[in-house]
Write a structure and sequence with these properties.
432 residues, globular, six-stranded parallel beta sheet
């Protein structure tokens, strides 16, 4: 049998695959993980396409099974692939965030849907397929750390991506933010520290990125992992929540173990807005102190903001570039609030009639798909682009880069590259 695996990408979405994407676009582990779950000798040939940098050719070969993973914004592209491969006699399997949230919709285009984690479901499906008894839906959330495999990174292209490997210690998150789809897929389930360390050793790298939604969420686990990381003498970055900036013991250990930067979802400068979407840390007046604390331990901060909360006004949003300057962030990222299917926010907005389109290709975080409270959606789209442009003026790019704590550690050109990459993010060309 022959298998084709595809990570689908919205063909109209250019923002994270432009000429500078290798400066800030993380390499995905999705296909590498799926590949590692395929039982040995199950297929005589396995082809892999990451549509972020590769193209799908329907007539390149005849495949017994085509597996597709996709998010909401790429679902319409994925459906076209499903329909075309189905015409050619392939059995179609879909998984990922969108398939988990809307399995009945996805089943209109495929034969089997895998909801949630794939560690047990994919081997089970392949066994059933060989027996001629595949199920329509596989849904097995009873996955433990022992089920996690080492991603088959060597099978996946790294074109147009950062040449820094990614790794996951705990892919879940215990927070309950209304707009986040993370909990529809994963639960917090840390891997054994020794397994994580062994995988890092095999990578033979001096730098790496932890994809954990909240690396420091389980403090005891994080401490144990960082003590082992310290022995490897690797440099790393990760995601964190704002309260990380109050734990000086944890920050110092992070730095000593090689951490040189954290991405924090600050989301909004309005405590009221954060309360409305279930953010746990809401003390926005403490942001500057937190960032200064992290800087004092030698780590840079990438602050992420979401535009379009109910409390947002035009004036407040247009002031974001200056507020970023005032906070002293080293890097910043912006997104339009997007109520993804499967989230509490989507449920609330759909019930109240605030969802203005279910054209999934517009769910890119670069386009308003709901009715904001204080402005038309078209104005939110316009402000979003103004904020990106002003926050990434050359003057601000250079100031952020050369006042960062990274400038003292010899990483200034990495930070400059990331700032330049975001400056040339192709959001102007995405659908509005």
């Amino acid at each position: 049998m022959k298998l084709l695996m595809i990570h689908a990408w919205n063909e109209g979405e250019t923002a994270y695959r432009g000429k500078f994407s290798n400066l800030f676009s993380y390499p995905s582990l999705t296909l590498a993980v799926i590949y590692s779950l395929i039982p040995k000798d199950a297929f005589e040939r396995i082809d892999v396409i990451d549509e972020n940098s590769q193209r799908v050719n329907y007539d390149n070969d005849k495949y017994d099974i085509v597996m597709l993973s996709f998010e909401t914004s790429s679902s319409l592209t994925a459906y076209r692939h499903c329909d075309e491969f189905r015409k050619r006699g392939s059995y179609i399997v879909c998984g990922g965030y969108h398939a988990t949230a809307l399995p009945d919709e996805v089943l209109e285009h495929c034969d089997t849907v895998i909801c949630g984690p794939a560690e047990k479901s994919i081997p089970e499906f392949i066994g059933d397929f060989k027996k001629g008894l595949p199920k329509r839906i596989y849904r097995n959330y009873d996955v433990c750390p022992e089920d996690f495999t080492v991603p088959a990174r060597d099978k996946i292209t790294q074109r147009k991506k950062l040449k820094i490997p990614g790794i996951v210690a705990d892919r879940g998150c215990s927070n309950c933010c209304k707009y986040c789809s993370m909990r529809t897929m994963w639960k917090s389930c840390p891997r054994p520290v020794e397994k994580v360390i062994d995988e890092i050793k095999e990578l033979n790298t001096k730098m790496l990125i932890f994809y954990d939604p909240n690396f420091f969420g389980d403090r005891e686990y994080a401490v144990k992992l960082m003590r082992e990381l310290k022995k490897l003498k690797v440099l790393w970055v990760s995601n964190a929540t704002a309260d990380f900036g109050y734990d000086h013991e944890l920050m110092q250990l992070a730095y000593e173990s090689g951490c040189r930067g954290v991405l924090i979802g600050l989301e909004s400068l309005s405590s009221k807005s954060l309360t409305g979407v279930g953010k746990r840390f809401r003390e926005t007046d403490k942001y500057k102190e937190i960032i200064e604390n992290i800087h004092s331990h030698g780590m840079a901060v990438n602050g992420c903001f979401v535009l379009g909360f109910d409390g947002d006004t035009e004036e407040e949003l247009l002031a974001l570039p200056q507020r970023v300057d005032d906070l002293g962030l080293d890097l910043c990222r912006f997104a339009i609030l997007t109520p993804y299917p499967g989230t509490k926010l989507y449920e609330e907005y759909d019930k109240s009639g605030r969802i203005i389109t279910k054209e999934w290709s517009r769910y890119t975080q670069h386009s308003a798909v709901f009715q904001p409270v204080n402005m038309p959606p078209e104005r939110l789209n316009e402000i979003y682009r103004i904020v990106w442009k002003e926050a990434y003026s050359w003057k601000r790019v250079l100031k952020r880069t050369f006042t960062s704590p990274w400038r003292k550690n010899g990483y200034v050109f990495i930070l400059l590259g990331a700032n330049i990459g975001f400056k040339f993010l192709n959001i102007k060309r995405t659908k509005k």
